[in-house]
Amino acid sequence: MLLAGSIILASSFAQAAQTEEFTLKNGMKIIVNEDHRAPTVAHMIWYRVGAVDERNGTTGVAHALEHMMFKGTKKLKVGEFSQRVAQLGGRENAFTSKDYTAYFQQIEKSKLEAVMALEADRMVNLQFDKNEFAKEIRVVMEERRLRTDDQPIAMVQEALTATAYAAHPYRNPVIGWMDDLQNMTVADVKAWHDAWYVPNNATMVVSGDVDAKQVFALAEKYFGRNVGRAFTRTRPQNEPPQLGIKRVTVKAPAENPYVVLAFKVPALHDVKKDDDAFALDVLAAVLDGYDNARLTAKLVRTDRVANEVGASYSGVARGPVMFLLDGSPAAGNTTEQLEKQLRAEVTRIATDGVSEAELKRVKTQLIAGQVYKRDSVFGQAMEIGAMEMSGLSYKDIDLIIERLRAVTPQQVQSVAQKYFGDDALTVATLVPLPMTDKRPAGSADSAANGPLH
To answer: Which residues, if any, are the signal sequence (predicted)?
Structure first.
């Protein structure tokens, strides 16, 4: 499938693990997930700031700062942070999303104190050398070229979000628009760090073979000295109502045409009350949650009108969310035809519903696939952090699983009827150009979640 489905269920959590939390006097939250099956630890620092908090003119600054976080402090030379983690036998990296920025190390449990000291240092002592920034922003621009400008599907998806959202900052790519990157300064990045990288905007998640009380003591020792500061949370910039279908076409060198349909649907904000979010997650699984789900079975294998198809939904986000249907038509078929066929499969569920037997099979597959993540202490840390950053709580993880188990055929049919009309829809289409080495003039500038560093 082209777009991975069902991310809400990425909230599965190791019930066997013991989780505790507390907050330092400076406002930094500490969450410890004890899992003693192996002598390893995942240590993560999550800052609740991402591309959604950016403004026009400095898009991509959250991701640019992520790169600069490895460029030295008052105590460490450029690159020394990563060198020290490697010397400890660990691995480390970072990632930026629309909603947050996170940094992590995976290490043997006796090395936890050392990496805590490193993270606490760069929270407050980061250096901003203009020459290092000049080199690193070129790396970011090249990353954008490789991940979006040279990738037709990524270009389409970027154009889709820029078209679907008229006001909300989700319309901007995480990596930033190329013009903003070209004009970004080291002062922009420093200002971003100074505004947001404060302990009262950070959450530490430690998962693995640790003792919670000892972790709390280490957190107090290394992060407790960092001073919290008042900051103003970004205004929501709520999206105005959409009044009709939006369409955008991208022309780029590609082997096959492609189309993606995005419907504006509810997000998950209240685990106890937001029934439709769980039904939408199950609907995505009915359409594309396993090898022979409805879209692939009908459009690829039976009717042979598509080479690939997909459906996806994730309700866990700080901002608005969309339900996606996408695919690449088979030879002799067009994107216009595939668009109608994808919508017809949702209409079929809206009209005929799903059986109890099909729903049971789908939910079993959906939930079982997520339970495997309980074998990873890093996966547990990821789920805890992502939930916290979205405004939910890691304490809701088990409840989410129960709510998904309780979804009925009537609820799935209801959301299929309710949310897939024209006024909620944005369609983005890829028109393939001949495959050449040269990008077309005026091609869209950029791409998605940046890496790492």
So the answer is: 1-16
* DSSP-derived secondary structure letter, 215: H
Which residue reads 């205004």 in tokens? 235
Structural domains for the chain = 12-223 (3.30.830.10), 246-433 (3.30.830.10)
What pLDDT, in 10s, does the model give residues 108-144? Answer: 999 999 999 999 999 999 999 999 999 999 999 999 9
Phi, psi torsion values for 249, nearest 5 degrees: -120, 135
C-alpha 94/C-alpha 329 separation (Å) is 36
User: Is 281's pLDDT higher than 70?
Assistant: yes
Active site residue 356: no
Residue 153 · residue 98 · CB < 8 Å = no
Q: Residue 261 forms beta bridges with which residues?
A: 325, 427
CA distances from 53 to 233, 250, 297 (A): 8, 27, 41
Whether residue 49 contacts residue 354, with contact meaning beta carbons closer than 8 Å, is answered with: no
Measured distance CA(163)–CA(408) in Å, rounded: 34
Contact 388, 382 (CB under 8 A): no
Distances (CA, A) of 211 to 32, 65, 263: 8, 32, 45
99 and 318 in contact (C-beta within 8 Å)?
yes
Cβ(8)–Cβ(313) below 8 Å: yes
Alpha-carbon distance of 345 to 281, in angstroms, equals 16
| Residue 306 DSSP SS3 | strand
Give the Å distances, CA to CA, from 124 to 5, 223, 240, 284.
Answer: 38, 10, 39, 43
CA-nearest of 316, 292, 392, 308 to 342 is 308
Tell me which of 25-34, 157-166, 372-381, 434-443 is least confident: 434-443
CB atoms within 10 A of CB 46: 25
Tell me, what's the pLDDT at 435? 86
pLDDT in tens, 322-354: 999 999 999 999 999 999 999 999 999 999 999
Distances in Å between the Cα of 60 and the Cα atoms of 137, 145, 161 are: 10, 14, 15
Output phi, psi for 198, to 5 deg. -125, 150
- Strand, coil or helix: 261: strand
pLDDT at res. 451? 39
Question: Contact 214/22 with Cβ under 8 angstroms?
Answer: no
**Catalytic pick among 66, 308, 345, 383:** 66
Q: Compute the residue count for the chain.
A: 453
User: pLDDT band for position 35 (50/70/90)?
Assistant: very high
The answer to whether the beta carbons of residues 411 and 22 sit under 8 Å apart is no
